[in-house]
What does this fold into?
Amino acid sequence: MTSLVEEPSVTRTRQATLLELRQLVVEYGSGDKRARAVDGVDLAIHEGEIVGLAGESGCGKTTIANAVMQILRPPGRIAGGSILFEGESLVGKSTEELRRFRWRNVSMVLQSAMNALNPVMRVGDQFVDAMRAHERIDRRRALARAGELLELVGIDRRRARAYPHELSGGMRQRVIIAMALSLKPELIIMDEPTTALDVVVQREIMQQIDALKRDFGFAVLFITHDLSLLLEFADRIAIMYAGEIVETASAERLGTNPQHPYTQGLLQSFPPLTGPLTRLTGIPGSPPDLRDPPSGCRFNPRCPYCVPEQSGLYLRQTTERPLLRTVEPGHEVACHLVEGAE
Amino acid sequence: MTTAAPLEVRSLSKRFAIGNAFRRAHVHAVDDVSFELRPGKITALVGESGSGKSTVARLLARLHDPSEGAVLFEGSDVSGVRRRRDVLHYRSQVQMIFQDPFGSLNPVKTVRHHIERPLRIHRIVPPAQIEERVHDLLRTVGLVPPAEIAAKYPYELSGGQQQRVAIARALAVEPKVFLADEPISMLDVSIRIGILNLMLRLKEERGIAFLYVTHDLASARYVADDILVMYAGQIVERGPIEQVLSAPLHPYTRLLLAAVPDPATKLQAQRIEMRKGLASAAVDPSEGCRFVTRCPLAIDVCSRVTPPLVEAQPEQAARCHVTAPSN
It folds into this structure.
């Protein structure tokens, strides 16, 4: 830890925490039908970092994104914990404060760009709208900047005159990314931005995000179910299961040395494109109903290491909730199996 | 290889009219496609969206009529067949599995109803044995205990279970051919492998011939024996899948392979060429290779002459003037 102090200040500012979630709890519904979609999540994103958040549908990853942007819709609500952006709490801010915060500090790219763009407005005008909602800029200058941003993502600036339906799916998604960049935010949340696209288009977009990130220095919270994409693209990865983060590590370490049985199972769910082929097993069963999650470790009904024969361990696995523990600096796991290893 | 192919397509084409009376154009969604499906083999059909791969599956399922060419089932042409009995027979032998399992099940009917119906319509077993056969089928696709599952409604099942019901329903009529159109792309990552393993088991144990339509090369490699790569309505490469993926001939196959996320290599390591043209090459195509605007290897002849599918390696063919020249 002492070595950190001696490092040049440049690296220290890069390490500054941008967004921090502390014991965040988000609930949907009430009474018996109440479901905790996010249950006690701790997550930090530092400046200029790409953090991947991976998990299956319904694990709460999109709910986290919506909570950060404060766009949760009822019956969803933040039921506990805090969301800090540059040390300032976002929970309880006024509508006007939030309006300023969104897009200027944190912008968001969603899976379906078609629904995010106004179909009866030219693309350029939508840029102008977004910019003029946040700063005093005249129309002509805003349009010029829209053109520059479009060129940045590989679209001819003349296409600013196009309507969304005149662009392909990949181009529309790039338009959204360009718009997300327009106010130079510190953090961009990308929720499955390439899932609806073909692999070739997906790779083009990922390369562009990577290049833009190096030019602009923004951080990215990248939400996806595609772990193989994150392993290649992210700096750090958090794995979510049934509302909880079960493992976080650097992408390299998670790919080579996963500790949580769920992470191991997820990695085992992607057949390799090269090298020897073996019959894979995936993960038996399916994710739990969050209105009535399993007691103890939520993964226990699907976990290959949770067997009644190991009675002492089994009891803990089925009754006691495992907490995130550091197994190595930067690598945390919430599993009863790895606690003993410490 | 001596067994007759249960399903063979010869020079299949499908054109859709677009535009209006003044500006008529045709999308050549499928153009001169030929291949055969073999018993106990899985053939993967890969390509980007709009390449025509789903149209091929729909032509085989007789949801569309082909503009040209023939679909041969056990040697006889079925593309013009109109008689109800013959259509019914073909549909019982060639079954389709769709991308959205929930959409392909009736939300107000139980699982039992879904699987009983084909058994009754096609008179597969005497009525007294229907219950037993339904349970057998559910067990085959890994849905246990069958009595409990049979009484459930689709919304009570997970996506993977729904897809298994759709497969059990397709299996009920004892088909020879399965057409699976992106059967796993809407399922959760952790349960996809289960469906792929089920496909492998069905081809091994029952000798079913599969057409596996997908955009996911890694899953294609996991299950398939052969691969067909489609681009803008044409098959641009075909061959045994391991051979094609380890030594692809067509530049488009190479581009696809390079685009797949590979944790072993970092993003910067294998940059791909940015797309210059668009995949609209199938709209009233002129003579010449349809990939020419995106191709890094393009030479003079490519924009003038449409390359034929040439077997440049044993069993491996490609449509490319450069890597698979015709003489």
